[in-house]
Design brief:
Number of helices: 17
Structural class: alpha/beta
CATH topology of the largest domain: Aconitase, domain 3
Helix content: 40-55%
Distance between the termini: 57 Å
Number of strands: 14
Oligomer: single chain
Bound molecules: FE3-S4 cluster
Shape: globular
Largest sheet: 5 strands, parallel
Strand content: 5-15%
Radius of gyration: 21 Å
CATH architecture of the largest domain: 2-Layer Sandwich
CATH class of the largest domain: Alpha Beta
Length: 410
């Protein structure tokens, strides 16, 4: 692999440990994937920002890099292990808070912004089409590659850290034109009305195409929230990092452009039957009683908060029900100014910052709050909930989830 003189000096350790280690990681990855060179990147979104993922060993590694390491590009932190402001009242343990402070502090020392969110593109970091970036967090990767048209591979904690320190990534995978061509053609033959419908489409597709690049036809309109849900679901049942919607996403003005002149490996139809079956498959809670309603996976937008506040105005969350709306600190600040926060709090809902059930030590919260079942409008959360945190999960549209928060029942 070609390295410039400066890059070679970093690699040889002439500029200290963090640069040497970072170069070692990136060059190794580049060799594995056949990259010919390294390319400059314009931002990093850091996975492994939760101590539930990094563990104590990961925290120590980041602290070691932070002794002298400095980030060369704007870097935002992904979702953390707990709400840094209300952790105690939510039932998190002091030890988790202390460890998370060490990890967040080490990243901040190197120059990161402690956004602690999986939707940095809603407030915090927004690249433009064609820009090379190094992002982690599967839902954000699928969104930023597909909806925005920026270029990133699926970075893990060590490679994203290495890119933040060097400002570089190895030139392979989704950085290259030829790997951005569609591979599967999905005809959507049923109206998609809600974000949950988009999540169901993503879940169904991800299972079939796995890590391939699907191209959708038959979708003439979609909101940012619906595309956010589609991205998260594609990356949870499968490991899709890039998709195209003909006539909607920036690299697919036409069917031919989406496939870069090539042909689909296979074609499929997503119809009403597939939509209904996917909803049923994702619904793993068949009783009536619920204990946690979780909205904001991926982290909620202003529009979602507006809708929730509109519904909750003058209503009350049923006593004993935990109603969480997960957001970034940026969205919380705007919601505060818009008055949505007061309405949601007045109704008994909780705005939960910085975290989510999957990246939290959820067993602590389940014990502390006696949680027995969860309700969500997110296909990603419905996918991971029953397995990862062992809690039966009901999957349904936002309105149904909000009704459940008020009535205490599905
Ligand atoms: Fe975000 Fe957590 Fe969902 S990181 S996409 S809220 S599982």
């Amino acid at each position: 692999m070609y390295l410039t003189e400066e890059q070679q000096a970093w690699y040889d350790g002439k500029n200290g440990f963090p640069l040497q280690k970072a170069m070692e990681i990136i060059v190794q990855l580049g060799k594995i994937y056949g990259a010919e060179r390294l390319i400059p990147i314009s931002s990093v979104h850091m996975p492994g920002s939760s101590v539930v993922v990094s563990g104590e060993a990961g925290v120590k590694f980041v602290e070691k890099m932070a002794e002298t390491g400095v980030f060369r590009v704007p870097t935002t932190l992904n979702t953390g292990a707990l709400d840094m402001e209300s952790w105690e009242s939510l039932g998190y343990k002091r030890a988790t808070y202390d460890l998370q402070c060490r990890l967040t502090g080490a990243y901040q020392k190197m120059g990161a912004t402690a956004l602690h969110s999986c939707t940095p593109y809603l407030g915090g970091s927004l690249p433009r089409k064609g820009q090379h970036i190094a992002w982690g967090e599967s839902s954000a990767i699928a969104f930023i590659n597909s909806v925005v048209g920026a270029r990133t591979n699926r970075e893990g904690g060590p490679s994203a850290l290495a890119s933040a320190i060097t400002g570089l990534a190895a030139d392979y995978g989704y950085h290259l034109d030829e790997n951005r061509a569609g591979q599967f053609l999905i005809h959507v033959d049923t109206p998609l009305k809600t974000s949950t419908d988009f999540g169901s489409l993503g879940y169904w597709t991800g299972k079939i195409v796995e890590s391939g690049v699907p191209v959708f036809t038959g979708i003439s309109e979609a909101s940012v929230d619906q595309l956010k849900m589609l991205s998260a679901a594609l990356a949870s049942s499968g490991s899709v990092a890039l998709f195209h919607i003909v006539g909607l996403t920036p690299e697919a003005p036409t069917l031919d452009a989406a496939f870069l002149g090539g042909k689909a490996q296979s074609e499929m139809v997503f119809d009403q039957k597939a939509l209904n079956e996917t909803r049923e498959k994702l619904n793993k809670h068949h009783g009536e009683d619920i204990s946690l309603v979780a909205i904001g996976c991926p982290h909620a937008s202003m529009e979602e908060l507006e809708e929730i506040a509109g519904f909750m105005k003058g209503k009350k969350v049923k006593s004993g029900i935990h109603f969480w709306i997960m957001v970034s600190v940026a969205i919380k600040a705007i919601a505060q100014r818009s008055g949505y926060l007061d309405i949601i709090k007045e109704a008994g809902g909780k705005i939960v910052l910085d975290t989510c059930p999957i990246l939290s030590p959820m067993q602590d919260l389940i014990k502390a709050n006696g949680l027995k079942s969860m309700v969500t409008n997110s296909a990603k959360l419905a996918h991971y909930g029953p397995g990862q945190i062992a809690i039966p999960t009901y999957y349904g549209d936002l309105e149904k989830c909000l009704n459940a928060a008020v009535s205490g029942k599905i």
